[in-house]
Write a structure and sequence with these properties.
The chain is mostly helical and 333 residues long. The chain is built from 14 helices and 2 strands, in the order αββααααααααααααα. The N terminus is likely disordered.
Length: 333
């Protein structure tokens, strides 16, 4: 069967015509370079945006953490190279009475500063949550201590608690209390330091509670008022259960902050602040770590203290996770 061959319009033979581009079976044309660049940009841009955070975290967070762990397994002194000692630094901490005293001081300071702080913050937030004159002014005023530097606040409290001419002993003496040595005695010194922490952080936590209270539906309060509930009953039965996750959050954050307490006891003790007083009566784990690293010069042992503090914080985080899961199960049930 004969096949007719048509000549092209320019007279060239059919074999010289350019071969057509292959197209996909679905008939769509392959994407051009602009489309490919757009797809790459869509996939890569999010990683590029978050990359600075991970770079900074790796340089100033992850690397110091790993390097501190390496130092804790070595005998390192200032200006010298370290020698491998394994877990000897941790064993030395276990056998050190000063480490256990610092751990107990950290725990007691955390309790006597966190509990009153959060209770007062709840009360202040509850008052600010209701309509009152000058409410905006008081909301700003309660945050003023948080804006004050640690050094300035501590120096003022040191003068107030001075055992010779402090205003606290003057007031207590007028109501019949004996003279109290707020520097050399263990519990008075810890109470004085905890009052500084409480004064600085109560307003901050109060604003956190206030923000959580304002998110509670007003219908719950109206229903409680119709049932004859007083403000106190509304606070106990409506407000507290509604802001329970926020309360748990502030407890965990305040506990972590108390575990890392450093500036207040350091400034309060003055010349003996690093050792936590003449008898280590208020030396915290942070002060003990600083003392071992820069006073004694044992950087390996100081690094071991840092990793013990990290372990404590991880245990606190694990307890927070377990409590949060338990609350979710109760609410779901």
């Amino acid at each position: 069967m004969a096949t007719s061959v048509r000549a092209t319009s320019d007279g060239s033979p059919p074999s010289s015509r350019p071969a057509p581009r292959s197209t996909p079976q679905d008939g769509s044309r392959p994407p051009g370079w602009r489309a490919r660049l757009y797809r790459f940009d869509t996939k890569a841009s999010p990683y590029a945006y978050v990359a600075p955070f991970f770079v900074v975290f790796a340089a100033f967070g992850l690397f110091p953490l790993i390097y501190t762990g390496w130092l804790s397994l070595h005998q390192v002194e200032l200006g010298t190279h370290g020698s491998w000692v394994g877990f000897d630094n941790y064993t030395a901490l276990w056998d050190s009475p000063f480490f256990w005293k610092a751990l107990r001081n950290t725990f007691t300071l955390a309790v006597i500063s966190t509990v009153p702080q959060l209770l007062m913050a709840l009360g202040i937030a509850h008052l600010l949550n209701y309509k009152m004159r000058g409410r905006s002014f008081f909301r700003v005023a309660v945050l003023a201590p948080y804006a004050t530097s640690v050094a300035a606040a501590t120096l003022v409290f040191v003068q107030m608690y001075n055992p010779d001419y402090g205003i606290v002993n003057e007031v207590l003496g007028k109501v019949g209390f004996p003279h109290i040595d707020w520097e050399s005695s263990k519990w008075p010194a810890q109470i004085a330091i905890s009052s500084i922490v409480t004064w600085r952080w109560t307003g901050y936590n109060a604003l956190i509670y206030l923000a959580a209270m304002q998110a509670v539906p007003a219908d719950l309060y109206e229903a409680a008022a119709l049932d004859g509930a007083s403000r106190w009953r509304q606070f106990v039965n409506v407000t507290i259960p509604s802001i329970r996750p926020t309360i748990l959050f502030t407890i965990i954050v305040s506990t972590i902050g108390a575990t890392q307490l450093f500036g207040e006891p350091l400034m309060y003790g003055g010349g003996v602040g690093i050792t936590g007083g003449t008898d280590h009566q208020y030396q915290t784990l942070s002060l003990y770590m600083y003392d071992q690293g820069w006073n004694v010069g044992e950087l390996g042992r100081a690094s071991a203290v840092a990793w013990v503090m990290l372990l404590i914080l991880l245990l606190i985080g694990a307890a927070n996770l377990l409590i949060a899961r338990s609350n979710r199960k109760k609410l779901g049930g």
